[in-house]
Amino acid sequence: MKKIAFMNQKGGVGKTTTAVNIGSILANEHGKRVLLVDLDPQGNLSDHVGIDPNETERSVYNILIDQLNPKEVMQKHHNLDILPANLDLSAAEVELVNMMSRELRLKNALDLIAGDYDYVLLDCPPSLGLLTISGLAFADEVVVPMQAEYLALRGLSQLVHTVELVSGHLNKDLNVSGVIFCMFDNRTLLAKGVREEVEHFFPGKVYAGGVRKNIRLAEAPSHGLPVNLYDPRCPGTEDYRELVLEFLSRHDDEVPEGYIAPQIKAFSPETVSYSAVNTEAGSGSTASNPPPEIRPVWEDSDT
Q1: Model pTM?
Q2: 77-95: per-residue pLDDT in tens?
Q3: What's the CATH code, domain 2-302?
């Protein structure tokens, strides 16, 4: 059983998207038992899989504060088990301040059920506060999704410092196991330069695969679906499938026979409009089957 925290204190880097889509491909295409844990009060992971955070009565907040068993909070969507978040979670850091062993309350709760899964994936909030520390106290390793931009580099030393503090005081086995580049365009000098810097900072830990900027990845959350269920043939799905194969090989898990770790690809951003997609063969949509109207998935519940 692997316990992995997806963490980056910079927001908008593809952290939630990566956690959801890796989890979905592991569960739906590789038969793994996967638990997703949403530690972000914004509830983006919950939203992504079709759970409306505004309508969620029980969340990770109730596990931390009320000490509910995680099974009382759990929801099931798309062959995934989910521990959702809602805005109540934003108050948890304040309420936990005076509680004993506050950093270990989440770990103690998740330890009750973690053995039921092959992978437990935690989506940490874009901060280095108590919720993130709680996730790191439970996890075995940290995967860092990031963009190939200058500002993304500046926070890496602070992120590593936080991981080292948790490792020294709460979780001696914790380490940064990988870095995944999202919205990546290997044609630019900036992207190449940032990648080289990160490879120097994390030798041997940068995933060879990466994720292109892709409109389907942006659309999928509005339908409450992981991208491999929303459009199985789009570039975003292909990129995450390659990442999952590398992910499995890094964790000594079963991979298809003949698998070879991918080399760095010359990615290019996708700028195809709907009109082009609808007429392009093999794109996953045709003129007779246009993309559905984009609206939150829970709006369909009354129909």
Answers
A1: 0.84
A2: 999 999 999 999 999 989 9
A3: 3.40.50.300
